[in-house]
Amino acid sequence: MSKNQIVILGGGTGGTMTANRLRRRFDADQAEIHVVDRDDRHVYQPGLIFVPFGLASIEEIVRPRRHQFWAGVTFHENEVAEVWIDRNEVLLDDRTVLPYDVLVVASGVRLQPEETDGMTGPGWNERVFTFYDPEGARGLQAALDRFDGGRLVVNLVDMPIKCPIAPLEFAFLADWFLRERGLRARTELLFATPLDGAFTKPVASERLAGLLAEKEIELVTEFNAGEVDGAGGKLGSYDGRELEFDLLVTVPLHGGAAYLERSPGLADALGFVPVDMHTLQTPTKANIFALGDATDLPTSKAGSVTHFEAEVLTENIAHFLAGEELVGTFDGHANCFIETGFHKALLIDFNYVTEPLTGHFPTAFGLPLLRESRLNHLGKLMFQWVYWHALLPGREIPGFGPRMPTAGKRRTPVHA
Ligand SMILES: Cc1cc2nc3c(=O)[nH]c(=O)nc-3n(C[C@H](O)[C@H](O)[C@H](O)COP(=O)(O)OP(=O)(O)OC[C@H]3O[C@@H](n4cnc5c(N)ncnc54)[C@H](O)[C@@H]3O)c2cc1C
């Protein structure tokens, strides 16, 4: 095989795993591997949920990006400006042109708070916050420290968002935090969502709605937020409803990276990249693949999904370069711990066709599914170590792979 040039756009979860897996797969004389990212701060994003409550600091969850790559991966600290798909080239912000044989889009999502009327106006980062980026999470920590009771509204503006369970986790942890501080009795806690239930999938939605009710968190459904009045403390929906707040915790609209809009043929109208749901190859060009939050796939935008995709993607890049048929083994597998406070967590595991069910993961003797337990909470805490030391370097974890395990799952309703 002659030496191939592989360019990966984005050095977050998916880009780093893919680069490291490819580096282990190909010798240096077989492939050059380039990763482009705009900064040198790799954020362990699941850790952001703990920052507002003082349970983690930004310093504990951020590491230098360039140190996460195996030797032999070339890191470019640059903004991607444009992709010229007809010429197989990427243009960077310093006018560097990177030619490629294979391109991997791993640029995640872009938070777009400015797309909701008033959100970034008066009150932004004073009484309206998002914990979806490090700066917002840190600001929210200070605001919660000052919070002395009132109305706290948690809202996700619209789907899709990354980690769709994170806003629920925030609500559960806020309930715990306020109880510990003796503020719960004088705080109304609301969870407002555009969905018709607490979550997207029926069995999990019912279980999570039950937990919200147990914790006296009011669930407001089909609430499509259209306007924020930060100064007046009001969140308005398109159907004319209004929620008053003293503190608004929002998950803003998500879209794809801006360079995708300047690269015709790569992304859909929302900026997400269409790919084959099993092979991760784009329909636009056979030598372009995508993974992680950047894709339009009908599974969760989650780090676990990105990890499972990275395994299949690496295989398929090797097949593509060898002129072989691709494997279609990605089944939409997603796996997420859901922190519920009081040192407990739930676990959900699902794929394109099987919704989150009760039972155990990965076998009948594993972690409990859709049931609060301390074991799951410990699993969530341990996961950060696993992320830095096994997942990012591209090491295999036995029993934790792209195909969703079915051995421990029960097909009975939650309340049975
Ligand atoms: C609060 C929160 C909690 C979460 N909790 C969980 C959880 O418990 N479990 C779970 O599985 N997942 C969780 N996630 C989701 C998980 O972090 C993401 O799904 C995962 O990181 C996606 O990986 P990615 O590679 O697609 O994107 P990212 O890891 O976001 O990487 C994208 C990279 O592309 C770079 N980039 C974008 N545009 C450009 C450009 N133009 N030029 C250069 N670089 C660019 C960015 O700088 C970034 O580094 C959580 C996310 C959040 C925000």
SSE layout and pairings?
Layout: E1 4-9, H1 13-25, E2 31-37, E3 41-43, H2 58-61, E4 62-64, E5 73-77, E6 80-84, E7 89-92, E8 97-99, E9 102-105, E10 110-111, E11 128-129, H3 134-146, E12 150-156, H4 166-180, E13 187-192, H5 202-214, E14 218-220, E15 225-229, E16 234-237, E17 242-244, E18 247-251, E19 254-255, H6 258-261, E20 288-290, H7 303-321, E21 334-341, E22 344-350, E23 359-361, E24 367-369, H8 374-391
Residues 10-15, 36-39, 45-46, 48-49, 79-80, 106-108, 131-132, 162-163, 166, 257, 259, 292-294, 301-304, 306, 336-337 line the site of flavin-adenine dinucleotide.
Give your account of this protein's structure:
With 416 residues, this protein is an alpha/beta fold. 24% of the residues lie in helices and 25% in strands. It is built from eight helices and 24 strands. The strands form eight sheets. Strands 5-2-1-9-20 form a five-stranded parallel beta sheet, with helices on one face. Strands 11-18-12-13-14 form a five-stranded parallel beta sheet. Strand 7 (89-92) and strand 8 form a beta hairpin. Helix 1 packs parallel to helix 7. The longest helix has 19 residues, at 303-321. It starts with a strand and ends in a 25-residue tail after the last helix. The relative contact order is 0.14. Bound molecules: flavin-adenine dinucleotide. Flavin-adenine dinucleotide binds next to helix 1, strand 2, helix 7 and strand 21.
